[in-house]
């Protein structure tokens, strides 16, 4: 009986082995390897590929860079054009809006011949001179000079002012300080700037500008009481300033050399 049991179990083992072989097959070494950590890409078309399963995140491919599309060609296909790159403007005029530049250029072109001749003479002496950029820089200087004068900062005014104007401004600051007064200036905005004169005298370039601005100017005493001006009123003021620069100098900065009020 013992020998019969051994033969019986041997037959059962052979039958089970044959069944497993028929179901699983044989490994040939060329089976496709599956990497469970591999990145899954998005199907090229809707409905293709494996549908996302609940609780699993599918990585998406990076979007392609946009292409600028121009007008269509006669055959109906889009005309693809590369994106044009323009150099960024530099200098004081970089912050000026294109509309303001065109307006200023038109004003200069329509200016009297004597003014245009003066600007051209300065440009010949200094090829880097550009009237539009000059006006943009003068607007910045106008604001800096007003603010430094109101704050009584004579040291910051020195590189911006010529000797005579610096002496006049410094005297006014010292007198204000002696009386214990304080000037508060709020430059609401510069509404217009116009070149009214330009000349080259020897090597000295001179350009006179007419500034129209809106300001709130208030003078207070030592106790903080308003003694001049109205903090609620915006005044429209006109200033005529003349800037100068030695065209032979390596220093590109202009200085305020004269101020006057309109007649």
From TrEMBL:
Regions that span the bilayer: 6-24
Region (Disordered): 34-101
Composition bias type Basic and acidic residues, residue spans: 34-60, 72-87
Keyword Transmembrane helix attached: yes
InterPro entries reported for this sequence: NTF2-like_dom_sf (IPR032710), Tim44-like (IPR039544), Tim44-like_dom (IPR007379), UCP031890_Tim44-rel (IPR016985)
Main localisation: membrane
Source domain of life: Bacteria
One GO MF term: protein-folding chaperone binding
Gene3D superfamilies: 3.10.450.240
Domain Tim44-like: 115-261
GO biological process: protein import into mitochondrial matrix
Compartment list: Membrane
Alphabetized UniProt keyword annotations: Membrane, Transit peptide, Transmembrane, Transmembrane helix
Protein name, entry field: Putative lipid-binding transport protein (Tim44 family)
Lineage: Bacteria, Pseudomonadati, Pseudomonadota, Alphaproteobacteria, Rhodospirillales
């Amino acid at each position: 009986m013992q020998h019969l049991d051994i033969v019986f179990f041997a037959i059962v083992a052979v039958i089970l082995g044959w069944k497993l072989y028929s179901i699983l097959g044989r490994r040939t070494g060329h089976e496709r390897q599956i990497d469970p950590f591999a990145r899954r890409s998005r199907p090229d078309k809707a409905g293709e590929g494996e549908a996302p399963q609940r609780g699993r995140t599918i990585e998406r491919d990076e979007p392609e860079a946009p292409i600028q599309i121009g007008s269509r060609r006669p055959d109906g296909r889009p005309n693809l054009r590369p994106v044009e790159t323009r150099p960024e403007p530099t200098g004081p005029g970089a912050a000026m809006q294109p509309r303001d530049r065109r307006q200023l250029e038109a004003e200069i072109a329509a200016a009297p011949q004597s003014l245009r001749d003066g600007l051209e003479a300065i440009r010949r002496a200094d090829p880097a001179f550009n009237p539009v950029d000059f006006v943009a820089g003068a607007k910045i200087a106008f604001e800096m000079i007003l603010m430094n004068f109101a704050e009584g900062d004579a040291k910051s005014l020195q590189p911006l002012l010529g000797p005579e104007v610096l002496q006049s401004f410094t005297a006014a600051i010292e007198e204000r300080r002696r009386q214990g007064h304080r000037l508060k200036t709020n430059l609401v905005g510069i509404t217009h700037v116009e070149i009214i004169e330009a000349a080259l005298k020897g090597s000295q370039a001179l350009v006179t500008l007419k500034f129209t601005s809106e300001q709130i100017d208030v003078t207070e005493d030592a106790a903080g009481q308003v003694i001049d001006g109205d903090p609620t009123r915006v005044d429209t003021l006109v200033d005529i300033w003349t800037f100068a620069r030695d065209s032979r100098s390596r220093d590109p900065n202009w200085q305020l050399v004269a101020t006057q009020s309109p007649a």
